[in-house]
Automatic annotation (TrEMBL):
<protein>
    <submittedName>
        <fullName>DUF3368 domain-containing protein</fullName>
    </submittedName>
</protein>
<dbReference type="InterPro" id="IPR021799">
    <property type="entry name" value="PIN-like_prokaryotic"/>
</dbReference>
<dbReference type="Pfam" id="PF11848">
    <property type="entry name" value="DUF3368"/>
</dbReference>
Length: 162
């Protein structure tokens, strides 16, 4: 299974100490160089985020089709998102892990299967890797500054019977 990730799922889960969930669901995750750079350049106080790209189950792979990246940048995506989407297309990835709304929309329009951090939490609970989703969503909001609408928050809790 080929999984490509943008920065947000990795950095947010690292920030709250739950990055291990990704490796339990996806044995290998591929990131483009721009995502690796974003992780490595996190502020010094975010030491857990700065080391993500060094993990043995994270593989850094450069994007070869730069024209796709340039096209995506023109649509107001940041470099990490553009490279992650372009790499997912190049590799014919099974899934792209991405949270940002504009990036999700562009990836979906290009036919890429996407999952965000909340989908990862739902999968983790279904696999019995976590007992509850709510405390992790609360930590994402409080510690990582992750934004979840009230409606989506409620829908996720309903989906996992919490």
């Amino acid at each position: 299974m080929i999984i490509v990730s943008n920065t947000s799922p990795l950095s947010n889960l690292a920030a709250i100490g739950h990055l291990h969930l990704l490796s339990q669901i996806y044995p290998k995750i591929i990131i483009p160089q721009a995502v690796a750079n974003e992780l490595t350049n996190a502020p010094p106080e975010d030491a857990a985020i700065r080391t993500v790209s060094n993990l043995d189950w994270i593989e850094i792979q450069p994007v070869t089709h730069r024209s796709q990246v340039e096209t995506l940048l023109q649509k107001k995506l940041d470099l990490g998102e553009a490279e992650a989407i372009a790499l997912a297309l190049e590799l014919n990835a099974d899934r792209l892990l991405i949270d940002e709304q504009l990036g999700r929309r562009e990836a979906s329009n290009l036919g890429i299967e996407i999952t965000g951090i909340l989908g990862i939490l739902v999968a983790a609970k279904a696999r019995l890797l976590i007992p509850a989703v709510q405390p992790i969503m609360d930590a994402l909001i409080a510690q990582a500054g992750f934004r979840i609408s009230t409606e989506l928050y409620i829908r996720i809790l309903q989906a996992v019977d919490e």
